[in-house]
Design a protein that fits this description.
Oligomer: single chain
Number of helices: 2
Largest sheet: none
Number of strands: 0
Radius of gyration: 33 Å
Strand content: under 5%
Distance between the termini: 100 Å
Order of helices and strands: HH
Helix content: 40-55%
Length: 74
C-alpha cells in the first residue's frame, strides 16, 4: 500500500531521556581509591629504590661489608 500515510511520513525523533549520574563513568570514590593506591605504591617504590641506591653506592666504593647485618633477638 504505497498510499498509506503512516509508512510514507518519517516519524520525528523522540528526545532521549537525560542521562543519570551513574552513566558518567567511575564515581569519585573509585577514583580516590585508585589515586591512594598509586601514591602509596609510589612511596614504597621510592623507598626501595633509595635502599638499592645506597647498596650500589657502597659496593661501587669498594667496600665488602655493605649488606645489613641482622642479629637474632635474645
Amino acid at each position: 500500500m504505497p498510499d498509506d500515510p503512516e509508512i510514507d511520513t518519517p516519524h520525528p525523533r523522540e528526545p532521549t531521556p537525560p542521562e543519570s549520574k551513574s552513566d558518567h563513568g567511575p564515581s569519585a570514590v573509585v577514583m580516590l581509591v585508585v589515586a591512594v593506591v598509586v601514591v602509596v605504591g609510589g612511596y614504597f617504590l621510592s623507598i626501595k629504590l633509595k635502599e638499592m641506591g645506597r647498596m650500589q653506592d657502597c659496593v661501587m666504593s669498594g667496600r665488602t661489608n655493605c649488606a645489613p647485618v641482622t642479629t637474632p633477638g635474645r
